[in-house]
């Protein structure tokens, strides 16, 4: 087992990464507050891993909420079901919420924990690659709004993250690839050596080679932990973790949540960010090609869906948390392995990129 | 104008108390973040004060959300309308929410600000006595759940509180009295001299004598600010601010939100807390009589509604944020002017109090 520490003073916590961790109840137990535990999971994950998780929690009064599976259910309305479950079980402020599932479950369970009785403890048990390398770490929780992704939420840190790599064995191909998109992101934004490693090991990752997966998860979590420790509430550098996300959120919102997977939309977004970075003279054409090649090898899309036209794309991008006073800012690449947040580009270049990448 | 400071390090803020403050736009302006301002108010308050407020905000891009008036609308569903309004106006993370209204508006607008894009600035402009002396100060925000009051919310501090005492001139009698209940609370929990002052000045308060009102608001805010500064997130002493609230919340939830005003339910709750404190040997019969007399003079109820029977009352009280591991704790009075939080009483005594006060 590997432990990566997220260093946030009194809110610091460990990320446990390894095989067979779900069976090791003692890992969770030391992070549980109180005697009441609410497991939030979904209809896909519950039959696979709920029993194993509950086995390690026999000394607690446990309850569960099982939500439908999919980004389209990450709404304020479905969030209400978690509160219903907590209150029906008469759980107090001294309870712990455990998120067992992918990014949607983690975001919703974390946000519910942030709000229930104005804040209770929670633990992330991510079961998808995307959640293990990205969404379960760093305390961003949220639900979507029909007009924008993750528009309603909280910064709220978990007590620990337990990433059992065995759970990736049941992940379907498409979900695995979506997770690889966020792994590639870390290489692009701040870890050029990792990008090269990924070019060399992408086939092993897709073949679910346990060693390659563990290495990729650890390296991703290290990168994320460092950025989050430097800027917990995204007043600056943390925004680079959103490479490809403004483009990607536009696709997710525009097509309707759940049509594309988040990681797929982010993959296209990264291709678009690379395209615009080339137009600004920061990336060379061969470098952009390397980005596109890696995405292609990972079986990820590189083109935005044609049903969202350019004007609509621009409109959707205008609803983004990085907008300041009506001015859009984007995460772009100064070079492979170095991201920057900038609003300093001519709109025509952005429009050309959108046209180019559809 | 009087200024009371709430001392919370980097989250410190002033409470401005005085006459004609709504017309003094400069007071608000220095606390507004960004160029976008969303005013959240209700159908009762909007026709009275929205125009005056907006007059001072001419340099900003302003939008407004006008909610229906009443505790029964303090729900997750109605909260969604604030998010709809913010997104429809394309407001960014650098916007400011202003709550213009009573406790319900303040709680909802504050919670919306806590969650919108994971947190934007907000300002409280309380227009009821209850909001000016209590709910607008201290950063507790929330909505209700059918099973329990204020069960979904956040600790989230405003940038300032602007209490224009002129707004109390349009407050109806019943609302004024409900506010007086929370004023009396401060005397009971930690300010015996203020309790005596209230016994002497209660008629002036009810007659809306401006000087008496200003003094009562200032003294209340001072008390609240000190307690909040000592324990922002209610890990200890802050719970004394909930004197009468566990009983009161049971009445509000049991009758259906909006049937009784919050302050009315709290008044009965304080009578019940005094009754139970007497049974524990802490208050004398004459002291309890003084509490009941003051509530009576203020025109407040002292008896719980008979339609909630004892068993149901106990059940409703079990859903309370002060419950730890299934064990109910209550704020009781060691003496007039000194509250304590305790779970150390025999259930029969609590049952006798409920029976006695119906």
Automatic annotation (TrEMBL), chains A, B:
<dbReference type="GO" id="GO:0003856">
    <property type="term" value="F:3-dehydroquinate synthase activity"/>
</dbReference>
<keyword id="KW-0520">NAD</keyword>
<dbReference type="InterPro" id="IPR016037">
    <property type="entry name" value="DHQ_synth_AroB"/>
</dbReference>
<dbReference type="GO" id="GO:0009073">
    <property type="term" value="P:aromatic amino acid family biosynthetic process"/>
</dbReference>
<keyword id="KW-0028">Amino-acid biosynthesis</keyword>
<keyword id="KW-0547">Nucleotide-binding</keyword>
<feature type="binding site">
    <location>
        <begin position="69"/>
        <end position="74"/>
    </location>
    <ligand>
        <name>NAD(+)</name>
    </ligand>
</feature>
<dbReference type="GO" id="GO:0046872">
    <property type="term" value="F:metal ion binding"/>
</dbReference>
<protein>
    <recommendedName>
        <fullName>3-dehydroquinate synthase</fullName>
        <ecNumber>4.2.3.4</ecNumber>
    </recommendedName>
</protein>
<dbReference type="GO" id="GO:0009423">
    <property type="term" value="P:chorismate biosynthetic process"/>
</dbReference>
<dbReference type="Pfam" id="PF01761">
    <property type="entry name" value="DHQ_synthase"/>
</dbReference>
<feature type="binding site">
    <location>
        <position position="149"/>
    </location>
    <ligand>
        <name>NAD(+)</name>
    </ligand>
</feature>
<dbReference type="InterPro" id="IPR050071">
    <property type="entry name" value="Dehydroquinate_synthase"/>
</dbReference>
<dbReference type="InterPro" id="IPR056179">
    <property type="entry name" value="DHQS_C"/>
</dbReference>
<keyword id="KW-0479">Metal-binding</keyword>
<comment type="similarity">
    <text>Belongs to the sugar phosphate cyclases superfamily. Dehydroquinate synthase family.</text>
</comment>
<dbReference type="GO" id="GO:0008652">
    <property type="term" value="P:amino acid biosynthetic process"/>
</dbReference>
<comment type="pathway">
    <text>Metabolic intermediate biosynthesis; chorismate biosynthesis; chorismate from D-erythrose 4-phosphate and phosphoenolpyruvate: step 2/7.</text>
</comment>
<dbReference type="InterPro" id="IPR030960">
    <property type="entry name" value="DHQS/DOIS_N"/>
</dbReference>
<comment type="function">
    <text>Catalyzes the conversion of 3-deoxy-D-arabino-heptulosonate 7-phosphate (DAHP) to dehydroquinate (DHQ).</text>
</comment>
<feature type="binding site">
    <location>
        <position position="262"/>
    </location>
    <ligand>
        <name>Zn(2+)</name>
    </ligand>
</feature>
<feature type="binding site">
    <location>
        <position position="245"/>
    </location>
    <ligand>
        <name>Zn(2+)</name>
    </ligand>
</feature>
<dbReference type="InterPro" id="IPR030963">
    <property type="entry name" value="DHQ_synth_fam"/>
</dbReference>
<feature type="binding site">
    <location>
        <position position="140"/>
    </location>
    <ligand>
        <name>NAD(+)</name>
    </ligand>
</feature>
<dbReference type="GO" id="GO:0000166">
    <property type="term" value="F:nucleotide binding"/>
</dbReference>
<feature type="domain" description="3-dehydroquinate synthase N-terminal">
    <location>
        <begin position="65"/>
        <end position="177"/>
    </location>
</feature>
<feature type="binding site">
    <location>
        <begin position="103"/>
        <end position="107"/>
    </location>
    <ligand>
        <name>NAD(+)</name>
    </ligand>
</feature>
<feature type="binding site">
    <location>
        <position position="182"/>
    </location>
    <ligand>
        <name>Zn(2+)</name>
    </ligand>
</feature>
<keyword id="KW-0963">Cytoplasm</keyword>
<keyword id="KW-0862">Zinc</keyword>
<dbReference type="Pfam" id="PF24621">
    <property type="entry name" value="DHQS_C"/>
</dbReference>
<feature type="domain" description="3-dehydroquinate synthase C-terminal">
    <location>
        <begin position="179"/>
        <end position="323"/>
    </location>
</feature>
<keyword id="KW-0456">Lyase</keyword>
<feature type="binding site">
    <location>
        <begin position="127"/>
        <end position="128"/>
    </location>
    <ligand>
        <name>NAD(+)</name>
    </ligand>
</feature>
<dbReference type="GO" id="GO:0005737">
    <property type="term" value="C:cytoplasm"/>
</dbReference>
<keyword id="KW-0057">Aromatic amino acid biosynthesis</keyword>
<keyword id="KW-0170">Cobalt</keyword>
<feature type="binding site">
    <location>
        <begin position="167"/>
        <end position="170"/>
    </location>
    <ligand>
        <name>NAD(+)</name>
    </ligand>
</feature>
